[in-house]
Amino acid sequence: MSKEKKYRIGTYLILIPAILFLFPKVHAQHESKTINDSWKFYQGECKAAASTTYDDSAWNSIHLPHTWNTDAYTEKKYYQGTGWYRRTLTLPQNWQTKQVFLKLDAASKAAAIYMNGRKIGEHNGGYTACTFDITPFCSFDAPNSLAIHVDNARQDIPPISADFTFFGGIYRDVWLTAVPKQHFHLTNYGSEGIFISTPQVSEEKGTILIRGEIKNDAEQKASLELEHIIYNPDGSIAQTQKQSIQIKGGELYSFRTETAPILSPRLWTPEAPHLYRIESILRDKKTKAILDHSNHHTGFRWFSFDGKTGFSLNGKPYKLRGICRHQDQKPIGVALTDEMHRRDMKLMKEMGANFIRISHYPQDDALLEMCDKLGMLAWEEIPIIDIVPDTPGYAENCENNLREMIRQHYNHPSIITWGYMNEILLVTQRRYKKEEELKPVLERTLSLANRLEKVLKEEDSTRVSTMAFHGSNSYNEVGLGNITDIVGWNLYQGWYGGDLTGFERFLTEQHKKHPSHPMIVSEYGAGSDKRLHSLQPHAFDFSIEYQQKYLEHYLPVLEETPYICGGTHWNFIDFSSALRDESMPRINNKGLVYSDRSPKDVYYYYKAAWRQDIPVLHIASRDWTHRSGVQHGKAPVPLPVKVYTNLPEVELFIDGKSLGKQKTENYTVTFQVPFSRKKHFISAQAENKESDQSISMIEDALHINFTPIPANLNETNLRNLELAVNVGSNCFYTSDESQLTWLPDQPYTESSWGYIGGESKNSQTQVENTHDGPLFQTLRNEIEGYCFDVPNGVYEVEFLFTDIFRENAATVYQLGRESGVESRENIFDIVINGESVEENFSPCRESGYFHALRKRYNITNFRNKIEIRFPVRNGKSFLNGIKLRKLY
């Protein structure tokens, strides 16, 4: 049931006064409401917190949804432990004759619930819901004390290892529901006790199967009537099914009803997501009073996966154009409101996606509701990731989480596949090198996979099963590749090692070896940082341009390879991964949108490729509106400006002057644009042929700020100039804080400026004491010197240092990428124009390894040149950045 339906109290408001008189309570038989307000929270352990007499007045006042892990955006070792939530409940007097239920939509990872000092129950699993009958624990004479103990450190509950943050807390809604003694079974693995499928479906006809359970919590038997009303997508009634039920006191009764064929059903597709509504009504047979009711949607669709021809929907070939989605948003973590989930789905749909991998765990009901209504096919999975531990209770918790996920989201026609393992050999293969150590882990992994596959098919025979593998053939060698109906491959060739063409080579090899096994590319992506831009982008420089280059290679392969069912880009957002360092510590920045959901330029590449129903024209420079470049004399500086479009030809203008027209290739046009002054107005135009008689002009425009940096420095152009160089890097870097752009490094040539000697090195380890981490993560190793040919005068010279030459544990999620950095202590002098300004200088002694250090000197130049040397005392010399400014 969607959340908007849960708010409906009294589906049937009988309008006839006489009937209202006969059945005065008919409108309030099933009541549900959130209890997200007025909570008290304490982070840590407090054994007395369950007691009704405990004084929580000193605790923090909070509102749900809530997480205690906003620290995950700043700390690698974020808090993993326990927390307590408390609040008071005053229950309506008219609930005394009813059954009262408490539902937690999600509490991570485990929750224990106490009512009036007594333990109601507990739930293991941080991403699925749980429902408890709290009737025996309720008081109607006095306020009730509700306490919930939450733990996000448990090692017997998945996930235990993963490339994302395990946020703790009650981060989804908490509900109270009151129903009569006879009602639909509400404690069925957190579901609502009604399950709907379409056993027969074609263009000609379709049937709907409705099954579920009714509970009689009264001591005496009851005579009931169960009615199902099927509504067409336009709201008219398609048909009605009724049955009489005799149910004993305390009995749990199972029902199963299949409708008569619905002729020429309106099929559900992402392009036309037609939904049929099923209203289930439980009545007292004698009085006709409504005891319980429920609303669900279903859709008529059928699908298939084929190893040779890919995916088909409703009998027609269909490419799955997908995206993966985590559920957090900086700085609030996973405590998202329903409208935030809905906003994400609208952004994906606007981009043209028709498929979502709900990764790596079940997500909010609001998300699934939008998948159904907007039209988005879905893969949903439980978070068994990296390794299967030898931990008592782990396998049982995995099985329960799988059953919960399937039962809670069974009624969503958007879901086509259930998953239960992701990159399960990733940590396994790295932790266990010896055969005798590895063998029992593999046996345990295979045993769990087979167990879960059996459970999945027991729970749902209408959908397919899947696992996602990282790019290693080991999965096939150990037997995991033969267990599920389809396999997903997480492939990053050209990012975590190798080159871009390794992507299609891997797929070709897998298809050749396993031609009958359907494949999805379940992950692919490259990181990007808005502060970094490159004219010569390469893997792991985190430039916006390399992410674009990477995706512009991958997407055509997915679209044009018929045996690939589709792909899901990793990830929709820049999301929280507390273990990561890289250019943006604590963030995995492979998103198509930023954490705040503003789209990156590359988002519009996908939109141009996937939205053939509307014209798309986007100047892909919103991520690079403040530019810089080296200017020779007064000549303009040519820099690329890219346009993403699905129109055949684009004309680009700078300050109203046409730069000509270019044909579109791979939804991309790139112009070399001459930049010269501080601010330019860039505009693009393209013709959109709407019909043979109608042509419209599509336009896009933006301002780009440009700061020229002279190649040859003189008295005039040095005024008010800060020449900042990102030493050892191919990237422009623009600081968020100062807006100063640091230029890519260049070799020294006479009458100009640049480095002498050395080679580029980089580290992806976080650099402390700075917000400009990428500046300090690249350097020139074994540098001999730096020269600026400048007129005489007084100058300020600033050096940036970070000693990265110490072995540091790399995250397992960087896969095969090695830093290539040796451990050593480096001691050298700094000599400027023959004068020593630092002797026996050791950056690591002065500030520590991986700590930012800035050194600034005022020097008087009498040589028409500033020549800097770095004589080595021990180890090697290095330099991370340099900045020059003329004072007088």
Automatic annotation (TrEMBL):
Q: Which residues form the Malectin domain?
A: 723-871
Q: Which residues form the Glycoside hydrolase family 2 immunoglobulin-like beta-sandwich domain?
A: 198-301
GO molecular function of the protein, one example? Answer: hydrolase activity, hydrolyzing O-glycosyl compounds
Q: Where is the Glycoside hydrolase family 2 catalytic domain?
A: 310-611
Share an example GO biological-process annotation for this protein. Answer: carbohydrate metabolic process
- List each copy of the Glycosyl hydrolases family 2 sugar binding domain by range: 53-180
* Keyword list, A-Z: Glycosidase, Hydrolase
DUF4982 domain residues are 638-676
- UniProt xrefs under InterPro entries: Beta-gal/glucu_dom_sf, DUF4982, Galactose-bd-like_sf, GH, GH2_Domain-Containing, Glyco_hydro_2, Glyco_hydro_2_cat, Glyco_hydro_2_N
User: Per the database entry, which stretches of residues form a coiled coil?
Assistant: none
Q: What single Pfam family name could you report for this chain, choosing any that match?
A: Malectin
Task: Give the record's family classification.
Answer: Belongs to the glycosyl hydrolase 2 family.
Protein name from the UniProt record: DUF4982 domain-containing protein
Organism, as annotated: Bacteroides cellulosilyticus
